Amino acid sequence: TGTSGYNLYFGNTAGAFFCIDKEKGELEWKYRLQENTQRKGIRSSATVSDGLIIFGAEDATIYALDAKYGTEKWSYNTMAPIFASPSVNNGVVFCGNTDGDFLALNANDGTLAWKFSAGASIYATASFTDSLVLIGTTGGTLAAFNQKNGRNIWTTEFNSVINSSAVVSGNVAYVGTLKKEFAAVNIADGAVVWRDTLEGRIKTSPAVAHGKVFVATDDKLVRAFKPIEAK
After folding, report:
1. Predicted TM-score (pTM) of this structure
2. Cβ-count burial 86-112 (b if 16+ within 10 Å, e if not)
């Protein structure tokens, strides 16, 4: 689900995307994926950028719609289904697909800026530093790229599925895996500066608030940690 002003934006598994007035609950407009004969759906959340609503779909395409009218501004076929939610930073859309392609598209017209093949499916949403974009994969890697040119700055192996976003705080990024590992990575070089094994798998993104790092696991617990600073 995305939000902008007085509206909510979301898609469904039948391939329809909706704009709803969040105060009245009334339908403002609806968009259907074109030629969706196989009923491929929309499983990613939408992101809002400069009057555009941007989302990915199982038909392998990233769509950008006019936020007010729901008309299609541009679309880009990534050639593999998209479950990850796109994110926009500095006028660029970042998103991965199930073939392991991580793409950067110009937000204004959907043209490709750069692409990297990560070698394993991407279900996580990207996270950012001032100059880097970070993405995790089901192959167990957390990788950092230069936002402008896509150069791979570092890749850290965790040997377990990462299907949620890392969160950046200070000079570290916190990331969790399905092997129950929670770790802090130095954003300068990707070195692991701290790690712990929890009692449950980490399927959702950590959060930083009120001077603590919070992480939820599938053993129905939320844990709080003191932030780490890389030396």
Report:
1. 0.94
2. bbbbeebbbbbbbbbbbbbbebeebee
